[in-house]
Amino acid sequence: MQNPVLASRSLFSHAVDDDFELTKASCRVAAALEEQFIAAGWQTGERIGSEEALARRFDVGSRIIDEAVRVLTMRGTARLRRASSNMIDLEVTAPEVNQVFDVLCGYSYLAGISEQHRNEASSFLAAVRERVALGNGHPQTALALAFMARFVGEKLVPGAPPEGLIKERFHKFRAGQIANRILERYFGPQFEPNRKIGSEAELSALYRADRSITRQAIRLLESAGLVTTVPGRGNGIFTNRPPSAPVSRLVCCYLASCGLPIAAAFEIFRAMSIEAISLAAQRACAADVREFERNFAANWNESRLAQLPDIFSTEDSQFRAVRNPLIELYLRSLRGYVALTVEDGGGTVSKEMADCFVDYTRRVLDAMIRHEPAEAAHAHEGKLLAMREVESRHNPGLARILYTA
Fold this sequence. Notes:
The protein has helices at residues 4-7, 11-16, 25-39, 51-58, 62-75, 97-110, 115-134, 141-155, 165-170, 174-186, 200-206, 211-223, 245-257, 262-283, 286-299, 308-319, 325-339, 351-369, 373-394, 396-403, and strands at residues 78-82, 88-92, 196-198, 227-229, 237-239. By secondary structure, it is mainly alpha-helical. It has a three-stranded antiparallel beta sheet. The chain has a two-stranded antiparallel ribbon with strand order 1-2. A hairpin with a 5-residue loop joins strand 1 and strand 2 (88-92). The N and C termini lie far apart (44 Å). The model has no long low-confidence stretch (mean pLDDT 88).
């Protein structure tokens, strides 16, 4: 029987919009451990056990744990370290900011972030900063906003491939060198999504490597969402346009390692979502409205209990109308960070909360149809305030975490 941690999709995974079904076991183990580190307040230097202990905990083989540890090491979130007892344990590490910037640059390059996207994101963050300042909220909101603004203003060069710590880390071991050669060959200026790059056996022959080493290289690329392995005769490994989820996860890891409080993260997400709804109302076309109406009808009906992932899905259908992958990535990152606080409380939404969400979301949709950004933002802000009141009555413990400055 598979470990439930690996068999079921976490609320965090829903919040950052992971493609859970395509994720290999080793990548799920790595993701589960990073979620654990964030939820525990990111205790840099904490020892969480040997590879053997982790294999028992997740009920998987040593090969899967070995691949998961390699993924964590490459992401800068954990490493193997010898203890004084001569045991080798996995130790939590803090991701380097320049490595996170490098990953963001790689995503931006392959996602086609343009100069216009960059300028829009810069203006968006400035508006969010003003909105947060007006609220006289948590003093540590400046930490996350400064990090995001620094990337957009100083590090992001639209159209430029990433250079830096990621490639340096890849060069330190054989599997990383193979992954790097695949990146250089298939993810440069001539990048094409859904392009077959070969089978595991073919890549092993091409790079003259043992299949276990090639498999590790593939897992590194899969963990970043860059490739997908399609099993069966005649299939193989194909390139992907990178999803934002692995990058959002790393952004969350970095913010957690900096000690960002949950209340501060929620305050930023609140301000970001209001600004995003305003932009969506300006830009929404007929196709956006139809998608939103379909999503809304599918997620909100009387035949079943509403779940938090239904709220995420509805939000995403609105945020997509902004048409800026970088803004969407930042929104999902902050939402994922906050989602870890409610993991223990489950994902079911009370009927009062669902009714509140549905009522105000209809008002947002009406304003979007009329292209009235101020009215849409006002309706969305009203929804957040109403949901806060409901949460305070039904779950005061969680409300204190989210809303206490």
